[in-house]
Amino acid sequence: MRTFVDLRISGDGLDLDEITEKLGMAPDVSFKKGDVHIDTKFGSKATVYQEDCWITGYEYSGEAIFEETLDSFMAKINLSASYIKSLSEMHKITVWISAYPDSEQANIHLSKNSIEIINEIGATLDCSMAFLKEFYEGNY
What we know:
The chain is α+β, with helices and mostly antiparallel strands. The chain has one domain. Helix content is 30%, strand content 32%. It has 5 helices and 7 strands. It has helices at residues 16-23, 66-78, 81-88, 112-120, 133-136, and strands at 2-11, 29-31, 36-39, 45-48, 52-60, 92-100, 124-129. The chain has a 5-stranded mixed beta sheet with strand order 2-5-1-6-7. Strands 3-4 form a two-stranded antiparallel sheet. Helix 2 runs parallel beside helix 4 (112-120). The protein starts with a strand and ends with a helix. The model has no long low-confidence stretch (mean pLDDT 86).
């Protein structure tokens, strides 16, 4: 199962450089309100971002147990829990899990520890699953 886990911090007035410094992690994606993104993957649609955003995460490739990989990522996040919690008072903090299973049935298990960290940092949890095997094989 191909799975992505991200920490997403969004809202108005974010100091993106400060977030990078305080978390000790580089963002995979960051942008400021009003920035324009041209999506060349699906045509040339322009998107004007409506808020500031900073996202970091990883792609789970199935080489380890997903729960252990998630716990490891959450432990890194937990090192900056008080800073992230302070951000959550004015901005939206989201732990975002996107899963693309190889079969119609799949399970994502979150340990008690990961759930406690998500709660401690004041984050919401977004999970999405999409079965895209037929799409990728061209049978859609």
